[in-house]
Amino acid sequence: MKEKYNEYQIAIYMAWKKFEELHPKPIRPKWLEEFISIGGTKSQNKNWIVTITLFPKIELKQNQYWERKNQDIRLIEIDKTTGKHFVVLCDGPAKDTIIIFKAEINIIKNLVNILIDADLNKLNKTKYQKRI
């Protein structure tokens, strides 16, 4: 039985294939895949905009931790008095988020239009948060 894929999965696949074509695994930083996040949204013209991002490393307080729920990355803080957990930040830290690759995907025409393609050799692993 053939597996069905939704448009989002197809767009992510097409963007990743283009990224791999431009940055083959043997020459990209070995640490990169443990740190990147990939996601996509539909544009006004019905194409997909797919981004590969890195999040900056931030110092967490003792009562904070990162959590992934569904597709969201959330910063959770534990109230020191009540012990309750609450969301401080959703979708990861926005400040200084680095987009290393961004492409517009036209699934119908099987086209990938590269919008951003960063030089991976200039990335410093110590500046980024490992993927959650």
Question: How does this structure look, described?
Answer:
The mean pLDDT is 88. A four-stranded antiparallel beta sheet has the order 1-2-6-7, with helices on one face. The chain is 12% helix and 36% strand. It is mainly beta and 132 residues long. A hairpin with a 2-residue loop joins strand 3 and strand 4.
Tally of individual helices: 1
Q: Roughly how many Å apart are the termini?
A: 33 Å
Unreliable segments of 5+ consecutive residues: none
Radius of gyration: 17 Å
The number of strands is 7
How helix-rich are the residues, as a percent range?
Answer: 10-25%
Round the mean pLDDT to the nearest integer and report it: 88
**Helix-strand string:** HEEEEEEE
Strand content: 35-45%
Main sheet strand line-up: 1-2-6-7
Shape: globular
The major beta sheet can be summarized as: 4 strands, antiparallel
User: Which structural class best describes the helix and strand composition?
Assistant: mainly beta
